[in-house]
Write a structure and sequence with these properties.
The complex is a heterodimer of chains A (259) and B (320).
Chain A: E1 2-6, E2 9-11, E3 32-34, H1 36-51, E4 56-62, H2 69-77, E5 81-85, H3 95-107, E6 113-117, H4 128-136, E7 140-150, E8 153-159, E9 163-170, E10 173-177, H5 189-195, E11 200-203, H6 205-208, H7 216-220, E12 222-229, E13 237-240, H8 245-255
Parallel strand pairs in A: 1-4, 1-6, 4-5, 5-11, 6-10, 7-10
Antiparallel strand pairs in A: 2-3, 7-8, 8-9
Chain B: E1 5-10, E2 12-13, E3 16-17, H1 19-31, E4 34-39, H2 47-52, E5 57-60, H3 69-84, E6 88-92, H4 95-108, E7 112-116, E8 118-122, E9 125-132, E10 137-143, E11 149-153, E12 169-172, E13 185-191, E14 204-208, H5 218-227, E15 231-234, H6 236-240, E16 261-265, H7 271-277, E17 282-287, E18 300-303, H8 306-318
Parallel strand pairs in B: 1-4, 1-6, 4-5, 5-12, 6-11, 7-11, 14-15, 14-16, 16-17, 17-18
Antiparallel strand pairs in B: 2-3, 8-9, 9-10
The chains are: A alpha/beta (259), B alpha/beta (320).
Chain lengths: 259, 320
């Protein structure tokens, strides 16, 4: 079984994010890291390959400046190899442009199963996986909280507003996984060392046969007209509990006529 | 581009449009002269209420018989849009809304802008507003494409309001076979048991987070919620950890709540969570870390141990 996992390399979410004032793009100058949302997809792929008695787990990522730091983390977890699409013309790509690029790269890899996180932690559009399936004209099951592969059938518990649905389809298929679906493993020292030697194929748009105008900012066909600061909520009273703080809460709830 | 017709992707169950669908209708009505609804399912049953909220027509595929919605809805929508030509399509930020918008975007090669909380018309173009960086900044994006603008909106971004119209005209659209892409089938549905006030529209919400320490401690959250007629919620951390089901999750990837009072118990206030509850009228926070970001948005912040404060609060409320 061949599994391709889409991974995004993002600015460290622990650091404050910032938009570049000249372009309004998210600043990605510092080292990028593996999006935690995608570590679940990587882990799930490794577990499914193990359960199937072997298989190949490959990664695909689109990132500026040939960034591989996040890919190395996923390779250290156990993925075999990776494809990175990096091209200056991709700056400002929207979800659809991103999906066209990832889709083109994935179609060269002929996977049985494509996994992706439901949404990234920085852009969180939550549409790229389904768009990739659209580009590949592949069936898809989004919002998976459990995945099982049985021969050429993939069976998923799909999260819904009310609970979950059992959904199934034949492979090849794309499945997007929710956070918390599995416990991502920590890369071992051995894994980290091995990851340094694992192959990462770097491609540009020409290699994928995609016109630069179809992606990037021109392909996005949308314009940031302004960015404003949101109204700050004012912090109220903060008190230290001396054993009677609950009375303060009851009083406050009383003022609000809740009790 | 001027905006004459906005098509709303309508969702709901058992003949009732969802609250989010009605919110989108109110927003669409304020921007366009004509508002229509597309329902991938039984839209006819919703025609009266959709009409009352300003929809002139409801296009319906009829029941999808257990097919996963997105691909089929997008194929039927594309077919409809060849003749219907709306200027914009509004979707709710729901699983099926996202799937459908994404598939449609690829089919008609048009951009989608997600996570919006506001919309306006500026110089004839649709401009949507999206909060970024945990809601500290807002990005306003204008559609510059030739075709229809596809936009997804977060729940509770607009106020639903009946407009007093008559039932929407029901137009049945032909199903379109999306081929192999459409083979995913729903073989079972599981509804988590829900009792008491629902998170979406509760007047008071009590939520618990990692600071509770262990799954059993969530019982105090439920007990407190029960005493003050509140719905109980949770941070993503304890949903991911499997303590409570996803249906209780408040935040960016869970539910957006805007109750009168929100009580955060042992929740530090990660951006992910703040996005989902910052719009509450009043916020009470209990956390042992005085530096926790949740205190930055709380009207009443208690620096203390949830295992002491909540039981004392429960006792105090019981003795009243």
């Amino acid at each position: 079984m061949k599994v391709v996992v889409c991974v995004k390399q993002i600015p460290d979410p622990a650091l404050p994010g910032e938009l570049d004032p000249s372009t309004n793009y998210l600043k990605r100058d510092d080292k990028l890291i593996l999006d935690e949302s995608d570590s679940y997809g990587v882990e799930m792929a490794l577990q499914l390959a193990e359960a199937a008695g072997g298989g190949q787990v490959s990664l695909v990522s689109m990132a500026p400046n040939g960034e591989v730091s996040g890919l190395r983390t996923a390779l250290a977890m156990g993925a075999e190899d990776a494809v990175l699409i990096s091209d200056d013309a991709l700056a400002g790509s929207d979800a659809l442009g991103t999906a066209r690029v990832l889709g083109a790269a994935i179609s060269r890899m002929s996977p049985d199963l494509v996994l992706a996180g439901v949404e990234s932690s920085d852009g969180y559009t939550g549409t790229v996986p389904e768009m990739i399936a659209g580009v590949l004209e592949m069936p898809s099951i989004t919002f998976a909280k459990q995945i099982e592969v049985d021969g050429n059938m993939v069976k998923v518990q799909r999260q819904t507003e009310a609970g979950y649905d059992d959904v199934e389809c034949q492979t090849p298929a794309l499945v997007s996984v929710t956070a918390g679906v599995v416990e991502p493993r920590y890369p071992s020292f051995k894994g980290i060392m091995a990851a340094k030697k694992k192959p990462v194929e770097e491609l540009d748009l020409a290699a994928l046969g995609i016109e630069a105008a179809a992606v990037g900012q021109s392909g996005a066909r949308q314009e940031t007209v302004r960015v404003t600061d949101a109204e700050e909520r004012q912090a109220g009273e903060v008190i230290e509990d001396e054993g009677d703080a609950h009375e303060k809460i009851v009083e406050f709830l009383g003022e609000l006529k809740i009790v | 581009m001027s905006v004459e017709t906005i098509l709303v992707f309508g969702e709901g169950d058992e003949g009732n449009p969802s609250g989010l669908t009605l919110e989108l209708l109110a927003a669409a009505r304020s921007l366009a002269t004509n508002v229509e609804v597309f329902v991938a399912g039984d839209g006819a049953a919703m025609a009266t209420e959709l009409g009352a909220h300003g929809a002139s027509k409801v296009y319906t595929t009829g029941p999808l018989d257990g097919k996963l919605v997105g691909v089929h809805a997008a194929a039927a929508l594309q077919n409809h849009m060849e003749t219907g030509s709306p200027d914009a399509v509004f979707f709710g930020q729901t699983p099926d809304g996202r799937d459908t918008a994404a598939r449609l975007a690829v089919r008609i090669d048009q951009p989608v802008v997600t996570n919006n909380v506001g919309a306006s018309i500026e110089d004839g173009a649709l401009v949507v507003e999206e909060p970024v960086f945990g809601g500290t900044q807002n990005v306003f994006t204008a559609f510059r494409n030739e075709g229809p603008a596809l936009a997804l909106f977060r729940p509770k971004s607009f106020e639903a309001e009946a407009a007093g119209g008559s039932a929407a005209e029901v137009v049945t659209v032909d199903p379109v076979d999306p081929g192999a892409a459409g083979i995913a089938a729903v073989t079972g549905r599981h509804v988590e048991e829900r009792s008491g006030p629902q998170l979406d529209d509760a007047e008071v919400v009590v939520s618990g987070g990692r600071g509770l320490g262990q799954p059993e401690a969530y019982e105090m959250v439920d007990e407190l919620a029960g005493l003050i007629g509140a719905a109980s919620g949770a941070s993503r951390a304890i949903v991911d950890a499997g303590w409570v089901p996803y249906s209780k999750q408040v935040g960016q990837t869970g539910k957006v709540v805007k109750p009168n009072v929100y009580v955060a118990c042992g929740i530090s206030g990660a951006t992910q969570h703040l996005v989902g509850m910052k719009g509450s009228k009043h916020i009470i926070a209990i956390n042992k870390d005085p530096e926790a970001p949740i205190f930055g948005v709380a009207d009443l912040g208690i620096v203390g141990d949830v295992h002491k404060v909540i039981p004392a609060l429960i006792e105090s409320l019981k003795s009243r």
